[in-house]
Amino acid sequence: MAEIKKEKKNTHEYSRKGRPSGNTRSSAGDEKRYANRRQGSETKPSPSRCPVSKKCGACQMIDVPYDKQLGKKHKHLKELLEPFCRVESFVGMESPEHYRCKVHAVFTHDRKGNPLSGIYREGSHEVVPVESCLLEDQKADAIIASIRGMLRSFKIKTFDEDNGYGLLRHVLIRIGKHTGEIMVVLVTVSPIFPSKNNFVKALLKEHPEITTIVLNVNDKQTSMILGDKEKPIYGPGFIYDICCGMKFKISPKSFYQVNPIQQEVLYRTAIEMAQLKGNETAMDCYSGVGTIGIIMSPHVKEVISVELNKDAVKDAIANARINEVKNVTFYQNDATEFMQQMAASGDSVDIVFMDPPRSGSTPEFIDAVKAISPKKVIYISCSPDSLARDLAIFEKKGYKAERAVPVDMFPFTRGIETVVLLTKTTDKEV
Ligand code: SAH
């Protein structure tokens, strides 16, 4: 399923990673000092900033100073995109730590039955205990620690994958960075949660900033975190966040970028690049919960959005309503098929925004874009490899990449997000 694909895209940045010992609020400057100290030490190498980085494996650049991380990613991107266009400087973060507003912890216990929470050891189902993580929102980590601390007194057993006993499997925290709203999702194997009301009361006493708590039931043997059944046990069962002045509803399963600070930078970059005049018909392809289309809606005449995932389209329609946006139409369809139908009916648009999953788009989609003949295409990509492949096809169809701007959505990891502007050069194939 498409939404799952995108989730998968994020899963390598998704696991919990450990926090460095000492002050976690270190800045890029601290990192430089740390690096110098490291180089100066001749006896034994300094320990990693994260005690579990080797076992977790999600932060490939955990011990690389931030400016060097960006340098490495830039070099890699340039190698891939140089045949097509200029790659501008990376838009990095001022404070690259604790950016993840979606945090997941697996719950289990040690041999004595003491509750543990953490990450799966790479390639296994063994849980590596994690207290907190350099990437994750600190409030989320504190809530997870509180839940772990409450389990004994509430006699709630953590789930045991080997024998199937126990109740609590996972905790998922989602935070609306700009609204301060916090959702806690308790993932259990059964819908019966003993002393549920007192548990909620006790958790809220420790963290009054929590705005909703959802009970999600996952009784399947699966690597998916969330099951199909869920119900709010406190608050509305969702949170809102604000991005570029628009409000978005986030449910436990909604796709929403994990780094809300850079998400704004990414969308602003994409919309600025398009130099919209206000009279355009624009397309938002692979539109998820409608973010890009809704954010650009005040700057164009109309937006046509297409997305494969049904739930995401439902959320997108709700999001448009919340923001009183009336000039965006949402279609649930495969983007390639939809584009081909538009081409077959002789439709044309002025500009196409596309934000496909990691695997990129399809040659057929690009063919259909050519038939629809927009003057510009804005390609947002989370995979430089599929981006380079697709830019080569676009070039053959008469669309030239003008500039690429990388935005660092995933500090400390290898992840690279790029926005590319393509313009129509010719009506003939080159
Ligand atoms: N633009 C959105 C979502 C980008 S993620 C945002 O910025 O939040 C990529 C999206 O592509 C996902 O929502 C996924 O469900 C969707 N998708 C994957 N394959 C698709 C396909 N073949 N056709 C249309 N949408 C697809």
Structure description:
This protein has 430 residues and is α/β, with parallel strands linked by helices. It has helices at 2-11, 28-40, 53-56, 66-81, 138-150, 196-206, 260-274, 291-296, 310-322, 335-344, 363-372, 384-396; strands at 86-87, 102-109, 115-120, 127-129, 168-175, 182-188, 212-217, 229-234, 239-243, 246-250, 281-285, 302-307, 328-332, 351-354, 376-381, 399-407, 417-424. It is globular, with a radius of gyration of 23 Å. The model is unreliable at 1-42 (pLDDT under 50). Helix 10 runs parallel beside helix 11 (363-372). 31% of the residues lie in helices and 23% in strands. The longest helix is centred in the first third of the chain and has 16 residues, at 66-81. The protein has 2 domains: 70-95 and 259-424, 3-Layer(aba) Sandwich (Rossmann fold); 102-240, OB fold (Dihydrolipoamide Acetyltransferase, E2P), CATH 2.40.50.1070. Bound molecules: S-adenosyl-L-homocysteine. S-adenosyl-L-homocysteine binds next to helix 1, helix 8 and strand 12.
Q: Which secondary structure elements does this structure contain, and how are they paired or packed?
A:
Blueprint: H1 2-11, H2 28-40, H3 53-56, H4 66-81, E1 86-87, E2 102-109, E3 115-120, E4 127-129, H5 138-150, E5 168-175, E6 182-188, H6 196-206, E7 212-217, E8 229-234, E9 239-243, E10 246-250, H7 260-274, E11 281-285, H8 291-296, E12 302-307, H9 310-322, E13 328-332, H10 335-344, E14 351-354, H11 363-372, E15 376-381, H12 384-396, E16 399-407, E17 417-424
Parallel strand pairs: 1-16, 6-7, 11-12, 11-14, 12-13, 14-15
Antiparallel strand pairs: 2-3, 2-5, 3-4, 5-6, 7-8, 9-10, 15-17, 16-17
Helix pairs in contact: 5-6, 10-11
This protein binds S-adenosyl-L-homocysteine.
